[in-house]
Amino acid sequence: MFSGVINLQRILQPTTGEAANIVVPHLDNLLKLDPYLVPYQDEIRRRYHVFQKILKQLNTEEQGIDVFTSAYKHFGIHINHETNEINIKEWAPGAKAMYIHGDFNNWKEKQYPFTRDQWGVWRITIPALSDGSSAIKHGQAIKLLIETSDGKLVNRICPWSRYVQRAEKSNIYHGVFYDPPNNEIYQFKYSQPKKRDRLKIYEAHVGISSSNEEIATYENFRINIIPRIVKQGYNTIQLMAVMEHPYYASFGYQVTSFFG
């Protein structure tokens, strides 16, 4: 059954002895290129062994890595634009009950309860209003209300949220229903680069890419940094801190939402 989650606790057990005889492709070549890695070759084998176990579980239980990493397409909150029904799907096996509330229903706590299946997946469908429009409008704040195992009610932001915003005059964040009209959706102007046979990745942070005491811009990065990266032979750039984050000194690790 595809759940979009896997049991990492079961997989990430100490496996040093078990992995000692694992054959890692091209490991000998790697150790020749970088002899400083020789003392860590057992750990490399262990990590490769764990990777293989996770990959096997994804293939046997989750229909493969491509399907598993596309879980955001059906988890979280989604609207059917043909009917304007809103479908919400969450995974919370430890919850006793779950509800959705927000601006759309004046934050009434238990008006919209979810139903739970045997896998700990919670679902709800909110029908369109009598005028045919969706019950939750673009830009409205929403939160999950979860009843914990000890009976407490706690508010939580949907982990699949596409947009998260801090409430005005408050340090509390809300999920925001994101369904902009078509004319507000960004349309890509350029085609994607051709897929490389091998990646040589340069990790970079646009905001700290200047030697000046300032937050650098994308324009600065385009003009001054990318040519240097290309000149060094890299063919792929991994950008840090692309997702929205409230605290700039975190370099983007403390994000407001993984899917924003």
Distance between the termini: 27 Å
* Structural domain count: 3
Low-confidence stretches: none
Average pLDDT works out at 88
Write the element-wise H/E pattern from the N-terminal end onward.
Answer: HHHHHEEEEEEEEEEHE
CATH level 3 topology of the largest domain: Immunoglobulin-like
Assign the structural class, choosing from mainly alpha, mainly beta, alpha/beta, alpha+beta, or little secondary structure: alpha+beta
**Total helical segments:** 6
- Main beta sheet: 5 strands, antiparallel
Report the count of strand segments.
Answer: 11
Query: Helicity level, as a percent range?
Result: 10-25%
- Output the radius of gyration: 23 Å
What is the level-2 CATH architecture name of the largest domain?
Sandwich
* Overall body shape: globular
Could you name the CATH homologous superfamily of the largest domain? Immunoglobulins
CATH top level assignment of the largest domain: Mainly Beta
Fraction in beta strands: 15-25%
Looking at this protein, list some descriptive labels.
single chain; 260 residues; alpha+beta; Immunoglobulin-like; 3 domains; 5-stranded antiparallel sheet; 4-stranded antiparallel sheet; 11 strands; hydrolase activity, hydrolyzing O-glycosyl compounds; Glycoside hydrolase family 13 N-terminal domain-containing protein; Ig-like_fold; 1,4-alpha-glucan branching enzyme activity; Ig_E-set
